[in-house]
Design brief:
The structure is a homodimer.
Chain A lengths: L8 H7 L7 H21 L3 H17 L6 H8 L2 H9 L37 E9 L10 E5 L8 H6 L10 E5 L5 E7 L4 E2 L5 H8 L5 E2 L2 E7 L6 E7 L18 E2 L2 E3 L2 E2 L5 E2 L3 E9 L8 H8 L5
Parallel strand pairs in A: 1-13, 8-9
Antiparallel strand pairs in A: 1-4, 2-3, 2-7, 5-6, 7-8, 10-13, 11-12
């Protein structure tokens, strides 16, 4: 294995992996090396460009903490996250579609009762969300658990304040709750707003150089689990948002767009009175039954939250 | 741009980059996105595998400092560095071949006179190196400057001691010197030894999972610059080394293998006496004339050292 050149080096690298015990790892690395090398060959990558890439990845690594995941942002903005979501969530017609997970999920968000307050002090216009979780036949899934998370009126998640050293590090605008015996849920929160993904780092510089904006249309995140069903990670997007057709992370599905209905000041769904306008949202989630002993579903279920 | 699926998302992402002002950046990102997406599609990347990749890159980012460049190690071990070297150093027959730069170069190494000591206290068996720098017609290049760097007898570069918090952070086993009016040079150093690349981090774990060893055959690094010539970044490899055919970074070229000749204790080339055996090495470097106003050569020349 000497004198490798641009024509034979790819085969030589792949041959070095013949001894890997894990056949799937060997398969992944074979394809990765082929595509990585083809990229360099196809564009005639210069040494200066290679080094710019090394620096870019180094900068991403250095800004990434347990509160900020810039590698996920990179994957999101290059469409890789949505592609992987699509590859792993080929659901039957009628199921609620999945979309990107995003970098802002947190394990262990506060558990609230039905009707509880998700916002927990996060600023925004009042919004009352209700809905149901059903199976493909429309029957309630009473065992379902929902995790919901969202940005506040200024477009920030609680973890972004924590990362910046601001705020009191309490969970805000995120919660976990269970549906009732009829598969129904309701909670109080704030209206979802469009926001830019964090763009003060390397990924933001990349978007700027590419002439792209960093905005995502307003949405609520949901992760829904229930025994016997595939975990659903999705958003509900706000109808009318100006970024529905140019989401910076390519996540919009028309089936996930819903109306946030505006109501004048008055009695709210929880029986209280609002002195300002408030919003209501109603959404039905349809879960995909888990095929028995499916490798793909098991792998999807095993995915760990990134932060 | 809604409802993107595994078939149309790649086109949608590329279309988002149509507004990039820099045409070369657009070209690079188009190819990168195509290959990145093809990789995910070809292997049917699962969400768990995607997240393993995110964690792997995060770990690489976090171990990388100004003393340790794990992203370059990754590029080296996947053969990307050698491929980029090959793509950018298509030299005429007769020129000394280039090989990988590696992560251990340091700007500003100590300037020594001809005959000076490169080791500067680094441990190893004495070795006397001499040679010349010439053009394709064999004429001396008296304006040439050499940077030389190498590992010590234990297989470590000075920066690795500094990264580990050991040593006194002085330059060891690296120096900068100029050839004489006849294009000749000589210096004293220690014998180059085979060594494993740093494998206590994520790249080491990857190599282990792939059933690969981390060793590089013994070599001296050279970077040679001279007005009117392409910068040459290369190694001289020690003949007989057991890793010449399985270099962990794919850098060996047979034209760069030379004999380290062993001598019994006695008078050394500098007129002193050695009580132990010592080695001599002789190597001739042939530089490639710089084509006037070549974009590729200019780009190669603009490459900045990584640490």
């Amino acid at each position: 294995m000497q004198n490798l050149n641009e024509d034979n080096i790819t085969r030589a690298v792949i041959a070095m992996h013949a001894g890997a015990e894990n056949a799937r790892l060997r398969e992944l690395m074979t394809s990765l090396v082929q595509h990585l090398h083809s990229f360099a060959r196809d564009v005639g990558l210069t040494e200066a460009e290679w080094f710019t890439g090394i620096r870019f990845l180094t900068d991403i690594g250095h800004i990434t903490t347990d509160k900020r995941q810039e590698f996920i942002l990179l994957s999101d903005t290059l469409g890789l996250s949505m592609l992987v979501t699509a590859l792993n969530n080929r659901k039957p017609q009628g199921c609620t579609e999945a979309t990107v997970f995003g970098p802002f999920h947190v394990e262990g968000s506060p558990r609230i009762p039905l009707g509880g307050d998700v916002a927990n002090g996060a600023q925004g216009e009042p919004c009352f969300v209700r809905g149901s979780v059903v199976d493909l036949q429309g029957r309630p899934v009473p065992g379902a658990e929902l995790q919901v998370w969202q940005a506040d009126a200024t477009g920030h998640y609680d973890v972004q304040y924590a990362a910046a050293g601001e705020g009191d590090h309490e969970h805000r605008a995120r919660a976990t709750l269970n549906v009732d015996a009829l598969g129904k849920f309701h909670f109080k929160t704030i209206r979802a707003e469009a926001y830019p993904i964090p763009h003060d780092g390397p990924v933001g510089k990349m978007l700027e150089a590419l002439g792209r904006h960093p905005w995502r249309p307003a949405h609520l995140h949901f992760m829904i689990t229930a025994p016997g069903f595939e975990r659903l990670i999705t958003h509900v997007f706000r109808n009318g948002d100006q970024y529905l057709d140019s989401d910076a992370v390519f996540g919009v599905r028309s089936s996930l767009i819903a109306d946030w209905i505006e109501h004048p000041p008055g009695v709210t769904p929880d029986g209280a009175r609002s002195a300002i306008p408030f919003y209501t949202l109603d959404f039905r989630f349809v879960l995909n039954p888990l095929p028995a002993a499916s490798g793909r579903a098991a792998a999807a279920g095993a995915r760990t939250a990134p932060v």
